[in-house]
Amino acid sequence: MPETIRASIYDFPQYYELLFGSDWRAEFHFLRGCFERHATRKVHKIFEPACGTGRLLLQFAKAGNKVSGNDLNEKAVAYCNERLRKHGFAKSVTVGDMADFRLKQPVDAAFNTINTFRHLPTEETAEAHLKCMAAALAPGGIYALGLHLLPTRGPHDDEESWIARRGHVQVCSRMWSKRVDRRGRMEYLGMTLDIWMPTKHFRIEDEMHYRTYTAAQMSDLLSRVPELEHVATYDFAYDLKKPVKIGPMTQDVVLILRRRS
Q1: What is the pLDDT, as a whole number, of residue 98?
Q2: DSSP element (H, E) containing 186
Q3: Is the Cβ–Cβ distance between 54 and 69 less than 8 Å?
Q4: pLDDT tens column, 184-198
Q5: Is 206 helix (H, G, I), strand (E, B) or coil?
Q6: What is the model's pLDDT at position 19?
Q7: CB neighbourhood size of 151 (10 A)
Q8: What burial class does residue 121 get, using C-beta atoms within 10 Å of its C-beta: 0-12 exposed, 13-18 middle, 19+ buried?
Q9: Class of domain 11-151+213-259
Q10: Every domain of the chain and the residues it spans
Q11: How do residues 52-97 score in pLDDT, each as one tens digit?
Q12: DSSP H or E run through 216
């Protein structure tokens, strides 16, 4: 049996980045397309709340954008800033709460595409986050928010796995839904990372708590932040040619929210 470490996967940014860092192209091109199509202003300054290792921030910086972000995890922030520095960019990511922050200057666009929003545990923190984002965006700016909705009809996807390799290091991950508390609106997810090296194998075990949203609950939340206008919806196929209409079986969505003038 491998040595098992019970800790947050976010405390191991080097393995998190190995696992997810190379899978950026589809999201990056999709987001650029969204900004061009739905923003009513030229997009130069881009912000990512809860940015983690900054896999997409780095790509936007390379494309000529001025980037910034925040995250609660100090190790992830340090990792992100160091990689920005290594590529010649400013260390522009800070330790901060995505539901309680204020930018010095507004940005033209922002994104949060991989369910991080659902880490916010209550309706109050979710609403506070959206209000922070509305204040962070210049008029006509865009916020792309990606999350899994809880379907009210049909099956619920409950397991995902990934494998990535770099040099002599391989990371295998598995995430599964342990249970869904519909009354308490919380999904309990297990996650393991198996790290294989030539002379070592160990496992990181984590449990994450994600707040659940049906389509109706998400719509109700958005209605309480009128500064943000919901202008389009896509899914995790990231195909700009195929916007989606949310129904009772819809699960993965990217909501395009625009700051009203």
Answers
A1: 98
A2: strand 186-197
A3: yes
A4: 999 999 999 999 999
A5: strand
A6: 87
A7: 16
A8: middle
A9: alpha beta
A10: 11-151+213-259, 152-211
A11: 999 999 999 999 999 999 999 999 999 999 999 999 999 999 999 9
A12: helix 215-223
What Cα–Cα distance (Å) separates residue 32 from each residue in 25, 35, 143, 240? 11, 5, 12, 10
Q: CATH homologous superfamily for 152-211?
A: S-adenosyl-L-methionine-dependent methyltransferases (2.20.25.110)
Q: What is the reported pLDDT for 221?
A: 98
**Residue 46 three-state SS:** strand
Residue 37: what pLDDT?
Answer: 98
Q: How far apart are CA 260 and CA 136, in angstroms?
A: 12
Q: Report residue 178: phi and psi, to 5°.
A: -75, -45
Q: Name the nearest CA neighbour of 4 among 175, 207, 204, 206.
A: 204
Spell out, as residue ranges, where the chain has pLDDT lower than 50: none
